[in-house]
Amino acid sequence: MTAPVFLADTAQLADAAGREGGTVVLEGPEGRHAVSVRRLRPGEEIVLTDGAGTGAHGTVTAVSGKDRLEVAVTSVRTETEPRPRITVVQALPKGDRGELAVETMTETGADAIVPWAASRCVTQWKGERGLKSLAKWRSTAREAGKQSRRLRFPDVAELATTSQVGELLREAALGVVLHEEGDLPLATAELPSDGGIVLVVGPEGGVSPQELTAFTEAGARTCRLGPSVLRTSTAGTAATALLLGRTGRWD
């Protein structure tokens, strides 16, 4: 099994990168998880990352208390931002399906996730509830990034309006609205070699005609995944996996 991943301070990783063989101290919530939950002990291997592409591989040299350990760095590497960048605009699902969507899209390899307040969403993010829901999505992405051994975690943006989603599509090298009546299979759509791909996943009730018009006027294509209709919480993951294979990012 590969070494577990934990978040570390960017400054410490930058310092370690400048002096390979240095020591990084992991403490606080991440240190507590490593010591008290994972029960890491001296001699075990570990990976530290800032979640922004820099990672340090090392060995635990000392453990103290319930939330502090020291790691001797053996190697440091930095991942460049992958191309093409894949952003999934996810309409707000019901219940905990939003966290499920974020978790699986992160594990699959999405680069950015944008929660979208579609007109047919049953769930509404307003006030304190909205802030808590966004915090849950970001926490889910962080934990899924660690679980899947990623060095670069996906960005989870603020809640977007339909107008803001239209701007994302307008700026993308390829904008796609997943739709069961799409005129083109996503498996055969022409893909850009660089720039960004933006995928829009509608809510349980579907993308409204007005929203679809706004998105196509912004340059988006309507594409279908296959003969079956996926839930809103799984469509983004399936589409991301398809694109990662087609773009060569899974080679």
Characteristic terms for this protein:
single chain; 251 residues; 2 domains; 7-stranded parallel sheet; 5-stranded mixed sheet; 7 helices
Written overview of the protein:
- The protein has helices at 10-18, 28-37, 97-108, 127-147, 162-171, 209-217, 232-246; strands at residues 5-7, 23-27, 45-49, 54-64, 68-78, 85-91, 112-116, 155-156, 174-178, 184-185, 196-201, 221-224.
- The protein starts with a strand and ends in a 5-residue tail after the last helix.
- The relative contact order is 0.15.
- It has 251 residues and is of the alpha/beta class.
- Strand 4 and strand 5 form a beta hairpin.
- The chain has two domains: 5-78, Ribosomal Protein L25, Chain P (Beta Barrel); 85-247, Alpha/beta knot (3-Layer(aba) Sandwich).
Would you tell me the structural class of the helices and strands? Answer: alpha/beta
> What oligomeric state is this?
single chain
Q: How much is the average pLDDT?
A: 93
What would you report as the Rg, rounded to the nearest angstrom? Answer: 20 Å
Return the CATH class of the largest domain: Alpha Beta
The neighbouring-strand order within the major sheet is 8-7-6-11-9-12-10
- Give me the count of strands: 12
Cα-to-Cα separation, first versus last residue: 21 Å
**What is the H/E order?**
EHEHEEEEHEHEHEEEHEH
Q: Indicate the CATH topology of the largest domain.
A: Alpha/beta knot
Q: What gross morphology would you assign?
A: elongated
Beta-sheet strand percentage? Answer: 25-35%
Give the helix proportion (percent range). Answer: 25-40%
Number of helices: 7
Query: Can you say what the CATH homologous superfamily of the largest domain is?
Result: SPOUT methyltransferase, trefoil knot domain
Architecture per CATH nomenclature, i.e. the level-2 architecture of the largest domain? 3-Layer(aba) Sandwich
How would a textbook summarize the main sheet? 7 strands, parallel
